[in-house]
Amino acid sequence: MSEQILKMTRITKTYFMGEEEQVVLNNINLAIYKGDFVAILGPSGSGKSTLMNIIGCLDSSTSGEYILSNQKVDELEESELASIRNKEVGFVFQQFQLLPRLTAIQNVELPLVYACLSEKERKQRAREMLIRVGLGEKLQNRPTQLSGGQQQRVAIARAMVTEPTILLADEPTGALDQKTGHQIIELFHELHEEGKTIVMITHDIEIAKHASRIVNILDGELREEHVHV
């Protein structure tokens, strides 16, 4: 049995709009194991973005228990949450979120600045990661000098450079054309085969089918789960 790295038990998230309580997540139970490639699939408004934010320690639940790498996330202070985000989670966003004035290698280095690595080690690790995603000849290019697919590869390299426990991808092909999107999905397959744990948020069933597990979310509830053999 693979090591369990994430466990959510009866996670609920509610907001108040005036005096009216709105339930966004309702008693979510989810376990993710080392080496999983999980797609969380749901339409707009299903609660998948809120679930992603809680998984990524960007938001906290109203009730329930969340354990990530043997740490009870819901008991952590804000400074501790920031630390676990940087150490345990690598984020890949739909719109890349690269800093336009920085080169590819400088963008990938950024998370390592907070990890207090030396400049030499930061550059070496960032270079290795960009080579890994096929951008060894684009180290000094700025985002405006890269295609959408290349920018997303830089973003993936940045997410992986800290060697996080989980790679958390939010609609990673959403801003790309179909061909380029499939190239990015192929890169995720390669990373998964290397042992990376990937959680991908998507509304697209065809994209979700590339994962080894599909978790459906609808109206704030996990409805069913498909496991691909």
- Order of helical and strand elements: EEEHEEHEHHHEHEHEE
Q: Can you summarize the main beta sheet?
A: 6 strands, mixed
Strand neighbour order, sheet with most strands: 6-7-8-3-9-10
Q: Please identify the oligomeric state.
A: single chain
CATH superfamily caption: P-loop containing nucleotide triphosphate hydrolases
Give the radius of gyration.
Answer: 18 Å
- Count the DSSP helices: 7
Poorly predicted runs are: none
Strand percent estimate: 25-35%
Task: Describe the global form.
Answer: globular
Which class in CATH terms?
A: Alpha Beta
As for the number of domains, it is: 1
- Based on secondary structure, the structural category is alpha/beta
Amino- and carboxy-terminal Cα gap: 15 Å
Number of strands: 10
The CATH architecture can be given as: 3-Layer(aba) Sandwich
Overall mean confidence score, pLDDT: 91
GO molecular function: ATP binding
Keywords: ATP-binding, Nucleotide-binding, Transport
Organism: Bacillus xiapuensis
Pfam family, one: ABC_tran
